[in-house]
Amino acid sequence: MSWMFLRDLLSGVNQYSSGVGQIWLAVVFIFRLLVYIVAAEHVWKDEQKEFECNIRQPGCENVCFDYFFPISQVRLWALQLIMVSTPSLLVVLHVAYHEGREKRHRKKLYVSPGTVDGGLWCTYLLSLIVKISFEIGFLVLFYKLYNGFSVPYLMKCDLKPCPNTVDCFISKPTEKTIFILFLVITSCLCIVLNFIEVSFLVLKCFIKCFLLKYAKKFKSSVCERQSLRCVECDETGAPSLLQNPHAGLALSTPQQQEPKILCDTQLGQT
Amino acid sequence: MDWGTLHTFIGGVNKHSTSIGKVWITVIFIFRVMILVVAAQEVWGDEQEDFVCNTLQPGCKNVCYDHFFPVSHIRLWALQLIFVSTPALLVAMHVAYYRHETARKFRRGEKRNEFKDEEDIKKQKVRIEGSLWWTYTSSIFFRILFEASFMYVFYFLYNGYHLPWVLKCDIDPCPNVVDCFISRPTEKTVFTIFMISASVICMLLNVAELCYLLLRICFRRSKRAQAQRNHPNHALKESKQNEMNELISDSGHNAITGFPS
To answer: Which GO terms describe its biological process (chain B) (predicted)?
Structure first.
Protein backbone atom coordinates (compact mmCIF):
# COMPACT_ATOMS: atom_id res chain seq x y z
CA MET A 1 0.00 0.00 0.00
CA SER A 2 1.51 3.28 -1.01
CA TRP A 3 0.72 6.45 -2.86
CA MET A 4 0.29 4.34 -6.05
CA PHE A 5 -2.93 3.00 -4.59
CA LEU A 6 -4.34 6.52 -4.21
CA ARG A 7 -3.11 7.41 -7.66
CA ASP A 8 -4.84 4.38 -9.21
CA LEU A 9 -8.08 5.13 -7.34
CA LEU A 10 -8.07 8.71 -8.49
CA SER A 11 -7.30 7.79 -12.10
CA GLY A 12 -10.64 5.99 -12.12
CA VAL A 13 -12.38 9.23 -11.12
CA ASN A 14 -11.01 10.98 -14.19
CA GLN A 15 -13.58 9.57 -16.62
CA TYR A 16 -16.55 10.92 -14.64
CA SER A 17 -15.13 14.38 -14.02
CA SER A 18 -15.89 17.57 -15.86
CA GLY A 19 -13.10 19.58 -17.56
CA VAL A 20 -12.44 21.60 -14.41
CA GLY A 21 -12.43 18.39 -12.38
CA GLN A 22 -9.72 16.96 -14.61
CA ILE A 23 -7.63 20.10 -14.20
CA TRP A 24 -8.07 19.71 -10.42
CA LEU A 25 -6.89 16.10 -10.66
CA ALA A 26 -3.81 17.14 -12.67
CA VAL A 27 -2.97 19.83 -10.10
CA VAL A 28 -3.37 17.35 -7.23
CA PHE A 29 -1.25 14.68 -8.93
CA ILE A 30 1.55 16.85 -10.16
CA PHE A 31 1.83 19.86 -7.90
CA ARG A 32 0.85 18.20 -4.64
CA LEU A 33 1.37 14.44 -4.68
CA LEU A 34 4.48 14.36 -6.88
CA VAL A 35 6.09 17.35 -5.15
CA TYR A 36 5.36 15.74 -1.77
CA ILE A 37 6.94 12.43 -2.75
CA VAL A 38 10.02 13.61 -4.64
CA ALA A 39 10.86 16.67 -2.56
CA ALA A 40 8.91 17.55 0.55
CA GLU A 41 9.20 14.18 2.29
CA HIS A 42 13.02 14.40 2.22
CA VAL A 43 13.11 17.89 3.71
CA TRP A 44 11.45 16.63 6.90
CA LYS A 45 13.33 13.33 6.92
CA ASP A 46 15.75 14.11 9.77
CA GLU A 47 13.67 16.73 11.54
CA GLN A 48 13.99 15.32 15.04
CA LYS A 49 17.61 14.20 14.75
CA GLU A 50 18.68 17.66 13.65
CA PHE A 51 16.45 19.48 16.16
CA GLU A 52 18.97 20.86 18.65
CA CYS A 53 18.49 22.64 21.95
CA ASN A 54 21.23 24.64 23.65
CA ILE A 55 21.31 22.34 26.70
CA ARG A 56 22.78 18.99 27.73
CA GLN A 57 19.85 18.05 30.00
CA PRO A 58 18.54 14.65 28.74
CA GLY A 59 14.88 14.70 27.71
CA CYS A 60 14.72 18.45 27.19
CA GLU A 61 15.04 18.18 23.40
CA ASN A 62 12.39 15.46 23.20
CA VAL A 63 9.90 17.40 25.28
CA CYS A 64 10.47 20.65 23.38
CA PHE A 65 10.21 18.97 19.98
CA ASP A 66 6.98 17.27 20.98
CA TYR A 67 5.57 20.58 22.23
CA PHE A 68 6.38 22.56 19.12
CA PHE A 69 5.47 19.79 16.64
CA PRO A 70 2.51 17.79 18.03
CA ILE A 71 2.14 16.42 14.53
CA SER A 72 4.82 16.87 11.88
CA GLN A 73 3.92 19.28 9.08
CA VAL A 74 4.75 16.67 6.47
CA ARG A 75 2.39 14.11 8.05
CA LEU A 76 -0.38 16.71 8.19
CA TRP A 77 0.31 17.37 4.49
CA ALA A 78 -0.06 13.65 3.72
CA LEU A 79 -3.33 13.45 5.71
CA GLN A 80 -4.65 16.48 3.88
CA LEU A 81 -3.85 14.88 0.50
CA ILE A 82 -5.64 11.66 1.44
CA MET A 83 -8.73 13.39 2.90
CA VAL A 84 -9.04 15.78 -0.02
CA SER A 85 -8.80 13.01 -2.62
CA THR A 86 -11.31 10.61 -1.11
CA PRO A 87 -14.63 12.50 -1.66
CA SER A 88 -14.10 11.84 -5.38
CA LEU A 89 -14.61 8.17 -4.53
CA LEU A 90 -18.26 8.94 -3.65
CA VAL A 91 -18.82 9.56 -7.35
CA VAL A 92 -17.07 6.33 -8.34
CA LEU A 93 -19.17 4.40 -5.81
CA HIS A 94 -22.40 5.95 -7.08
CA VAL A 95 -21.56 5.06 -10.69
CA ALA A 96 -20.67 1.51 -9.60
CA TYR A 97 -24.08 1.38 -7.85
CA HIS A 98 -25.80 2.43 -11.10
CA GLU A 99 -23.93 -0.24 -13.04
CA GLY A 100 -24.79 -2.82 -10.37
CA ARG A 101 -28.48 -1.97 -10.62
CA GLU A 102 -28.47 -2.25 -14.39
CA LYS A 103 -26.80 -5.65 -14.14
CA ARG A 104 -29.28 -6.86 -11.51
CA HIS A 105 -32.34 -5.78 -13.46
CA ARG A 106 -30.70 -6.86 -16.74
CA LYS A 107 -31.98 -3.82 -18.60
CA LYS A 108 -30.85 -0.30 -19.40
CA LEU A 109 -32.03 1.92 -16.55
CA TYR A 110 -29.89 4.98 -17.26
CA VAL A 111 -28.82 6.84 -20.41
CA SER A 112 -25.28 6.03 -19.28
CA PRO A 113 -24.23 5.10 -15.72
CA GLY A 114 -21.68 7.92 -15.74
CA THR A 115 -23.86 10.87 -16.87
CA VAL A 116 -23.94 13.56 -14.20
CA ASP A 117 -27.70 13.79 -13.84
CA GLY A 118 -30.23 13.51 -11.03
CA GLY A 119 -28.83 11.58 -8.06
CA LEU A 120 -25.28 11.51 -9.44
CA TRP A 121 -25.39 15.31 -9.78
CA CYS A 122 -26.18 15.58 -6.05
CA THR A 123 -23.38 13.15 -5.19
CA TYR A 124 -20.92 15.09 -7.35
CA LEU A 125 -21.94 18.39 -5.78
CA LEU A 126 -21.71 16.89 -2.28
CA SER A 127 -18.22 15.53 -3.01
CA LEU A 128 -17.10 18.99 -4.15
CA ILE A 129 -18.49 20.66 -1.03
CA VAL A 130 -16.79 18.07 1.21
CA LYS A 131 -13.49 18.61 -0.66
CA ILE A 132 -13.69 22.38 -0.16
CA SER A 133 -14.45 21.98 3.56
CA PHE A 134 -11.53 19.58 4.04
CA GLU A 135 -9.13 21.91 2.25
CA ILE A 136 -10.20 24.93 4.28
CA GLY A 137 -10.28 22.86 7.47
CA PHE A 138 -6.72 21.65 7.03
CA LEU A 139 -5.42 25.12 6.17
CA VAL A 140 -7.02 26.54 9.31
CA LEU A 141 -5.60 23.64 11.38
CA PHE A 142 -2.13 24.25 9.96
CA TYR A 143 -2.35 27.94 10.77
CA LYS A 144 -3.59 27.34 14.31
CA LEU A 145 -1.13 24.53 15.15
CA TYR A 146 2.03 26.27 13.94
CA ASN A 147 1.03 29.93 14.46
CA GLY A 148 1.21 30.78 10.80
CA PHE A 149 2.76 29.27 7.72
CA SER A 150 6.39 30.09 8.39
CA VAL A 151 8.91 28.04 10.34
CA PRO A 152 11.21 30.06 12.62
CA TYR A 153 14.87 29.05 12.99
CA LEU A 154 14.78 29.46 16.79
CA MET A 155 12.18 28.63 19.45
CA LYS A 156 12.36 29.28 23.17
CA CYS A 157 11.38 26.35 25.39
CA ASP A 158 11.00 26.25 29.18
CA LEU A 159 9.15 22.96 29.76
CA LYS A 160 10.32 20.46 32.38
CA PRO A 161 12.92 18.87 32.44
CA CYS A 162 14.61 21.88 30.76
CA PRO A 163 16.15 23.78 33.73
CA ASN A 164 15.46 27.28 32.28
CA THR A 165 14.37 28.95 29.05
CA VAL A 166 16.38 27.20 26.43
CA ASP A 167 17.06 28.02 22.75
CA CYS A 168 16.00 25.26 20.37
CA PHE A 169 17.03 25.30 16.73
CA ILE A 170 14.98 23.72 13.97
CA SER A 171 16.72 22.16 10.99
CA LYS A 172 16.20 23.69 7.51
CA PRO A 173 13.56 26.27 8.53
CA THR A 174 13.76 28.25 5.27
CA GLU A 175 13.35 25.20 3.06
CA LYS A 176 10.42 24.04 5.19
CA THR A 177 8.80 27.48 4.96
CA ILE A 178 9.14 27.43 1.17
CA PHE A 179 7.47 24.03 0.91
CA ILE A 180 4.68 24.97 3.33
CA LEU A 181 3.97 28.10 1.27
CA PHE A 182 3.92 25.89 -1.82
CA LEU A 183 1.39 23.65 -0.07
CA VAL A 184 -0.80 26.62 0.89
CA ILE A 185 -0.73 28.06 -2.64
CA THR A 186 -1.67 24.74 -4.26
CA SER A 187 -4.43 24.22 -1.67
CA CYS A 188 -5.87 27.65 -2.46
CA LEU A 189 -5.67 26.88 -6.18
CA CYS A 190 -7.56 23.62 -5.61
CA ILE A 191 -10.20 25.47 -3.53
CA VAL A 192 -10.69 27.97 -6.37
CA LEU A 193 -11.00 25.15 -8.93
CA ASN A 194 -13.57 23.38 -6.76
CA PHE A 195 -15.58 26.60 -6.35
CA ILE A 196 -15.55 27.10 -10.12
CA GLU A 197 -16.75 23.54 -10.63
CA VAL A 198 -19.57 23.99 -8.08
CA SER A 199 -20.74 27.24 -9.74
CA PHE A 200 -20.53 25.62 -13.14
CA LEU A 201 -22.64 22.63 -12.02
CA VAL A 202 -25.27 24.78 -10.29
CA LEU A 203 -25.46 27.21 -13.22
CA LYS A 204 -25.85 24.37 -15.73
CA CYS A 205 -28.69 22.92 -13.64
CA PHE A 206 -30.46 26.28 -13.36
CA ILE A 207 -30.22 26.89 -17.09
CA LYS A 208 -31.55 23.42 -17.85
CA CYS A 209 -34.49 23.79 -15.41
CA PHE A 210 -35.23 27.32 -16.65
CA LEU A 211 -35.21 26.22 -20.29
CA LEU A 212 -37.45 23.23 -19.54
CA LYS A 213 -39.88 25.41 -17.56
CA TYR A 214 -39.90 28.04 -20.29
CA ALA A 215 -40.48 25.44 -23.01
CA LYS A 216 -43.37 23.87 -21.00
CA LYS A 217 -44.88 27.29 -20.30
CA PHE A 218 -44.70 28.29 -23.97
CA LYS A 219 -46.31 25.01 -25.08
CA SER A 220 -49.14 25.26 -22.51
CA SER A 221 -49.82 28.94 -23.33
CA VAL A 222 -50.12 28.07 -27.04
CA CYS A 223 -52.66 25.31 -26.23
CA GLU A 224 -54.58 27.65 -23.89
CA ARG A 225 -54.75 30.33 -26.54
CA GLN A 226 -56.11 27.88 -29.10
CA SER A 227 -58.80 26.55 -26.73
CA LEU A 228 -59.67 30.11 -25.51
CA ARG A 229 -60.27 31.38 -29.05
CA CYS A 230 -62.56 28.48 -29.89
CA VAL A 231 -64.52 28.83 -26.61
CA GLU A 232 -64.99 32.61 -27.18
CA CYS A 233 -66.02 32.02 -30.76
CA ASP A 234 -68.64 29.55 -29.57
CA GLU A 235 -70.12 31.84 -26.81
CA THR A 236 -70.49 35.22 -28.43
CA GLY A 237 -70.19 34.76 -32.19
CA ALA A 238 -68.51 38.21 -32.18
CA PRO A 239 -64.99 38.55 -33.57
CA SER A 240 -62.58 37.32 -30.87
CA LEU A 241 -59.95 39.63 -29.41
CA LEU A 242 -57.23 37.27 -30.59
CA GLN A 243 -57.26 37.33 -34.34
CA ASN A 244 -56.67 33.76 -35.38
CA PRO A 245 -57.03 33.53 -39.16
CA HIS A 246 -56.67 29.74 -39.02
CA ALA A 247 -59.64 29.14 -36.66
CA GLY A 248 -61.53 27.26 -39.32
CA LEU A 249 -58.59 25.17 -40.53
CA ALA A 250 -58.33 21.50 -39.58
CA LEU A 251 -56.18 20.94 -36.47
CA SER A 252 -54.46 17.64 -36.07
CA THR A 253 -54.01 17.55 -32.25
CA PRO A 254 -56.51 15.30 -30.45
CA GLN A 255 -56.93 17.72 -27.43
CA GLN A 256 -58.22 20.39 -29.74
CA GLN A 257 -60.74 18.18 -31.52
CA GLU A 258 -63.75 19.18 -29.36
CA PRO A 259 -63.24 22.97 -29.45
CA LYS A 260 -62.54 22.73 -33.18
CA ILE A 261 -65.82 20.91 -33.75
CA LEU A 262 -67.71 23.53 -31.70
CA CYS A 263 -65.92 26.25 -33.63
CA ASP A 264 -66.76 24.77 -37.03
CA THR A 265 -70.37 24.11 -36.09
CA GLN A 266 -70.82 27.69 -34.90
CA LEU A 267 -69.23 29.10 -38.06
CA GLY A 268 -71.37 26.81 -40.15
CA GLN A 269 -74.51 28.05 -38.41
CA THR A 270 -73.72 31.78 -38.83
CA MET B 1 3.78 7.98 -7.41
CA ASP B 2 7.14 9.03 -8.71
CA TRP B 3 8.91 10.31 -11.80
CA GLY B 4 7.50 7.34 -13.74
CA THR B 5 4.01 8.84 -13.47
CA LEU B 6 5.27 12.15 -14.83
CA HIS B 7 6.92 10.21 -17.64
CA THR B 8 3.53 8.60 -18.46
CA PHE B 9 1.84 12.01 -18.48
CA ILE B 10 4.45 13.60 -20.70
CA GLY B 11 4.98 10.53 -22.87
CA GLY B 12 1.44 10.92 -24.16
CA VAL B 13 2.33 14.35 -25.50
CA ASN B 14 5.28 12.86 -27.39
CA LYS B 15 3.05 11.66 -30.23
CA HIS B 16 1.94 15.19 -31.07
CA SER B 17 5.32 16.87 -30.72
CA THR B 18 7.72 17.90 -33.43
CA SER B 19 11.01 15.96 -33.78
CA ILE B 20 12.84 18.57 -31.71
CA GLY B 21 10.13 18.18 -29.06
CA LYS B 22 10.75 14.43 -28.96
CA VAL B 23 14.50 14.99 -28.53
CA TRP B 24 13.73 17.44 -25.71
CA ILE B 25 11.58 14.86 -23.88
CA THR B 26 14.39 12.29 -24.22
CA VAL B 27 17.00 14.71 -22.88
CA ILE B 28 14.75 15.65 -19.95
CA PHE B 29 14.12 12.08 -18.88
CA ILE B 30 17.52 10.57 -19.50
CA PHE B 31 19.97 13.34 -18.69
CA ARG B 32 18.03 15.08 -15.97
CA VAL B 33 15.40 12.96 -14.23
CA MET B 34 17.43 9.77 -14.34
CA ILE B 35 20.66 11.47 -13.23
CA LEU B 36 18.73 13.18 -10.44
CA VAL B 37 17.25 9.92 -9.18
CA VAL B 38 20.21 7.52 -9.53
CA ALA B 39 23.14 9.79 -8.80
CA ALA B 40 22.45 13.26 -7.50
CA GLN B 41 20.18 12.12 -4.68
CA GLU B 42 22.95 9.88 -3.32
CA VAL B 43 25.47 12.71 -3.42
CA TRP B 44 23.19 15.09 -1.57
CA GLY B 45 21.74 12.40 0.72
CA ASP B 46 23.91 13.22 3.73
CA GLU B 47 24.19 16.95 3.11
CA GLN B 48 23.10 18.15 6.54
CA GLU B 49 24.51 15.26 8.58
CA ASP B 50 27.97 15.82 7.17
CA PHE B 51 27.80 19.60 7.24
CA VAL B 52 30.21 20.33 10.07
CA CYS B 53 31.04 23.62 11.77
CA ASN B 54 34.13 24.23 13.83
CA THR B 55 32.25 24.82 17.08
CA LEU B 56 30.48 22.82 19.76
CA GLN B 57 27.83 25.53 20.26
CA PRO B 58 24.45 23.80 19.78
CA GLY B 59 22.34 25.36 17.08
CA CYS B 60 25.21 27.01 15.24
CA LYS B 61 25.40 24.27 12.60
CA ASN B 62 21.62 24.38 11.99
CA VAL B 63 21.57 28.11 11.60
CA CYS B 64 24.60 28.23 9.31
CA TYR B 65 23.32 25.39 7.15
CA ASP B 66 19.96 27.13 6.80
CA HIS B 67 21.67 30.39 5.89
CA PHE B 68 23.87 28.91 3.15
CA PHE B 69 21.30 26.44 1.75
CA PRO B 70 17.81 27.99 1.97
CA VAL B 71 16.64 25.36 -0.51
CA SER B 72 18.63 22.25 -1.26
CA HIS B 73 19.98 21.81 -4.81
CA ILE B 74 18.14 18.53 -5.17
CA ARG B 75 14.78 20.01 -4.26
CA LEU B 76 15.29 22.96 -6.56
CA TRP B 77 16.09 20.61 -9.46
CA ALA B 78 13.06 18.46 -8.71
CA LEU B 79 10.81 21.55 -8.71
CA GLN B 80 12.48 22.80 -11.89
CA LEU B 81 11.82 19.49 -13.67
CA ILE B 82 8.19 19.45 -12.54
CA PHE B 83 7.55 23.03 -13.63
CA VAL B 84 9.36 22.59 -16.95
CA SER B 85 7.38 19.43 -17.79
CA THR B 86 3.93 20.77 -16.98
CA PRO B 87 3.41 23.14 -19.96
CA ALA B 88 3.32 19.98 -22.07
CA LEU B 89 0.09 19.15 -20.23
CA LEU B 90 -1.53 22.18 -21.87
CA VAL B 91 -0.94 20.47 -25.21
CA ALA B 92 -2.25 17.14 -23.86
CA MET B 93 -5.40 18.86 -22.56
CA HIS B 94 -5.95 20.65 -25.88
CA VAL B 95 -5.59 17.41 -27.84
CA ALA B 96 -7.98 15.65 -25.42
CA TYR B 97 -10.50 18.48 -25.84
CA TYR B 98 -10.17 18.38 -29.65
CA ARG B 99 -10.70 14.59 -29.65
CA HIS B 100 -13.72 14.94 -27.34
CA GLU B 101 -15.30 17.54 -29.67
CA THR B 102 -14.56 15.43 -32.77
CA ALA B 103 -16.12 12.36 -31.10
CA ARG B 104 -19.20 14.43 -30.21
CA LYS B 105 -19.55 15.62 -33.83
CA PHE B 106 -19.00 12.05 -35.05
CA ARG B 107 -21.82 10.81 -32.77
CA ARG B 108 -24.08 13.51 -34.21
CA GLY B 109 -23.23 12.22 -37.68
CA GLU B 110 -21.14 15.14 -38.90
CA LYS B 111 -17.72 13.67 -39.66
CA ARG B 112 -18.64 10.17 -40.77
CA ASN B 113 -16.65 10.37 -44.00
CA GLU B 114 -13.40 11.34 -42.21
CA PHE B 115 -13.27 8.58 -39.56
CA LYS B 116 -14.38 4.96 -39.46
CA ASP B 117 -15.32 4.93 -35.75
CA GLU B 118 -14.51 6.59 -32.43
CA GLU B 119 -11.41 4.43 -31.94
CA ASP B 120 -10.05 5.86 -35.19
CA ILE B 121 -10.43 9.40 -33.77
CA LYS B 122 -8.36 8.43 -30.70
CA LYS B 123 -5.58 6.87 -32.80
CA GLN B 124 -5.25 9.75 -35.26
CA LYS B 125 -2.19 11.99 -34.86
CA VAL B 126 -3.31 15.58 -34.40
CA ARG B 127 -1.45 18.08 -36.56
CA ILE B 128 0.07 21.18 -34.99
CA GLU B 129 -2.15 23.70 -36.77
CA GLY B 130 -4.60 26.42 -35.89
CA SER B 131 -5.34 26.80 -32.19
CA LEU B 132 -3.14 23.81 -31.28
CA TRP B 133 -0.20 25.67 -32.83
CA TRP B 134 -0.81 28.55 -30.41
CA THR B 135 -1.11 26.18 -27.43
CA TYR B 136 2.06 24.35 -28.43
CA THR B 137 4.00 27.57 -28.98
CA SER B 138 2.85 29.01 -25.62
CA SER B 139 3.87 25.79 -23.89
CA ILE B 140 7.38 26.08 -25.39
CA PHE B 141 7.51 29.72 -24.34
CA PHE B 142 6.59 28.83 -20.76
CA ARG B 143 9.16 26.05 -20.72
CA ILE B 144 11.90 28.49 -21.73
CA LEU B 145 10.68 30.97 -19.12
CA PHE B 146 10.70 28.37 -16.32
CA GLU B 147 14.15 27.04 -17.28
CA ALA B 148 15.63 30.53 -17.35
CA SER B 149 13.95 31.53 -14.06
CA PHE B 150 15.20 28.47 -12.21
CA MET B 151 18.73 28.92 -13.55
CA TYR B 152 18.67 32.52 -12.39
CA VAL B 153 17.29 31.57 -8.95
CA PHE B 154 20.08 28.98 -8.64
CA TYR B 155 22.74 31.51 -9.53
CA PHE B 156 21.26 34.10 -7.18
CA LEU B 157 20.84 31.75 -4.20
CA TYR B 158 24.27 30.09 -4.33
CA ASN B 159 26.35 32.94 -5.76
CA GLY B 160 27.28 30.97 -8.83
CA TYR B 161 27.43 27.27 -9.66
CA HIS B 162 30.55 26.40 -7.72
CA LEU B 163 30.44 24.99 -4.17
CA PRO B 164 33.29 26.04 -1.91
CA TRP B 165 34.77 23.55 0.59
CA VAL B 166 34.65 26.05 3.49
CA LEU B 167 32.10 28.72 4.42
CA LYS B 168 32.49 31.38 7.11
CA CYS B 169 29.50 31.84 9.40
CA ASP B 170 28.93 34.35 12.22
CA ILE B 171 25.15 34.20 12.77
CA ASP B 172 23.72 33.90 16.28
CA PRO B 173 24.16 31.60 18.29
CA CYS B 174 27.60 31.03 16.74
CA PRO B 175 29.94 32.76 19.22
CA ASN B 176 32.31 34.15 16.54
CA VAL B 177 33.16 33.68 12.87
CA VAL B 178 33.10 29.96 12.50
CA ASP B 179 34.38 27.69 9.69
CA CYS B 180 31.74 25.39 8.27
CA PHE B 181 32.61 22.54 5.91
CA ILE B 182 30.29 21.19 3.22
CA SER B 183 30.35 17.46 2.49
CA ARG B 184 31.64 16.41 -0.97
CA PRO B 185 31.87 19.90 -2.53
CA THR B 186 33.74 18.83 -5.68
CA GLU B 187 31.30 16.02 -6.52
CA LYS B 188 28.41 18.40 -5.89
CA THR B 189 30.02 21.01 -8.17
CA VAL B 190 30.43 18.40 -10.94
CA PHE B 191 26.79 17.40 -10.75
CA THR B 192 25.65 21.03 -10.53
CA ILE B 193 27.55 21.86 -13.71
CA PHE B 194 26.15 18.73 -15.39
CA MET B 195 22.56 19.65 -14.50
CA ILE B 196 23.05 23.27 -15.54
CA SER B 197 24.50 22.14 -18.90
CA ALA B 198 21.52 19.83 -19.42
CA SER B 199 19.23 22.80 -18.62
CA VAL B 200 21.05 24.93 -21.17
CA ILE B 201 20.76 22.20 -23.83
CA CYS B 202 17.03 21.86 -23.12
CA MET B 203 16.62 25.62 -23.37
CA LEU B 204 18.45 25.68 -26.71
CA LEU B 205 16.26 22.84 -27.98
CA ASN B 206 13.16 24.79 -26.95
CA VAL B 207 14.41 27.94 -28.68
CA ALA B 208 15.20 25.90 -31.83
CA GLU B 209 11.72 24.34 -31.74
CA LEU B 210 10.11 27.77 -31.35
CA CYS B 211 12.08 29.13 -34.33
CA TYR B 212 11.20 26.05 -36.37
CA LEU B 213 7.48 26.47 -35.65
CA LEU B 214 7.56 30.19 -36.47
CA LEU B 215 9.50 29.61 -39.69
CA ARG B 216 7.13 26.83 -40.72
CA ILE B 217 4.08 29.02 -40.30
CA CYS B 218 5.71 31.97 -42.12
CA PHE B 219 6.77 29.67 -44.96
CA ARG B 220 3.27 28.19 -45.25
CA ARG B 221 1.64 31.61 -45.28
CA SER B 222 4.04 32.97 -47.91
CA LYS B 223 3.44 29.87 -50.07
CA ARG B 224 -0.32 30.41 -49.83
CA ALA B 225 0.04 34.12 -50.63
CA GLN B 226 2.29 33.32 -53.60
CA ALA B 227 -0.15 30.74 -54.94
CA GLN B 228 -2.95 33.29 -54.72
CA ARG B 229 -0.85 35.98 -56.47
CA ASN B 230 0.13 33.70 -59.40
CA HIS B 231 -3.38 32.44 -60.08
CA PRO B 232 -5.73 35.13 -58.75
CA ASN B 233 -8.91 33.97 -60.50
CA HIS B 234 -7.95 30.37 -60.97
CA ALA B 235 -10.75 29.08 -58.76
CA LEU B 236 -13.27 31.50 -60.22
CA LYS B 237 -12.31 30.57 -63.80
CA GLU B 238 -12.79 26.86 -63.12
CA SER B 239 -16.31 27.22 -61.71
CA LYS B 240 -17.38 29.54 -64.54
CA GLN B 241 -16.02 27.05 -67.09
CA ASN B 242 -18.07 24.30 -65.49
CA GLU B 243 -21.21 26.45 -65.65
CA MET B 244 -20.53 27.22 -69.29
CA ASN B 245 -20.14 23.55 -70.15
CA GLU B 246 -23.45 22.75 -68.46
CA LEU B 247 -25.32 25.50 -70.29
CA ILE B 248 -23.81 24.41 -73.62
CA SER B 249 -24.75 20.82 -73.01
CA ASP B 250 -28.28 21.77 -71.80
CA SER B 251 -29.41 24.34 -74.31
CA GLY B 252 -27.01 23.79 -77.21
CA HIS B 253 -26.60 27.61 -77.57
CA ASN B 254 -23.68 29.79 -76.55
CA ALA B 255 -25.67 32.14 -74.22
CA ILE B 256 -22.80 33.43 -72.07
CA THR B 257 -22.00 37.09 -72.47
CA GLY B 258 -19.69 39.42 -70.62
CA PHE B 259 -17.52 36.56 -69.27
CA PRO B 260 -14.81 38.07 -67.01
CA SER B 261 -11.33 37.31 -68.24
So the answer is: cell-cell signaling; gap junction-mediated intercellular transport
* CATH code of the domain in which B189 resides: 1.20.1440.80
CATH of the domain at A80: 1.20.1440.80
| Structural domain includes residue A187 | yes
Domain extent for A209? 3-111+125-218
| Range of the structural domain that residue B37 is part of | 20-112+124-229
Q: Minimal Cα distance from A49: which residue of B?
A: B49
Per DSSP, the residues of B161-229 read: S---SEEEE--TTSSS-EEEE-SSHHHHHHHHHHHHHHHHHHHHHHHHHHHHHHHHHHHHHHHHHHHHH
Give the tens place of pLDDT for each residue, B95-140: 888 888 888 887 777 666 666 666 666 667 777 778 888 899 999 9
- The pTM of this model reads 0.74
User: Is there a domain that residue B54 lies in?
Assistant: yes
Residue among B75, B83, B89, B146 with most chain A CBs within 10 A, to mutate: B75
Element of type H or E holding A166: strand A166-169
Check if B137 contacts A (Cβ < 8 Å): no
- Residue B135 lies inside a defined structural domain of this protein: yes
Kindly indicate whether the ipTM for this predicted assembly is greater than 0.85, answering yes or no.
no
- Helices (DSSP H) in chain B: which residue ranges? 3-14, 19-27, 35, 41-43, 60-68, 73-85, 87-108, 118-123, 131-158, 185-230, 234-251
User: Tell me: the pLDDT tens digits for B55-78?
Assistant: 988 889 999 999 999 999 999 999
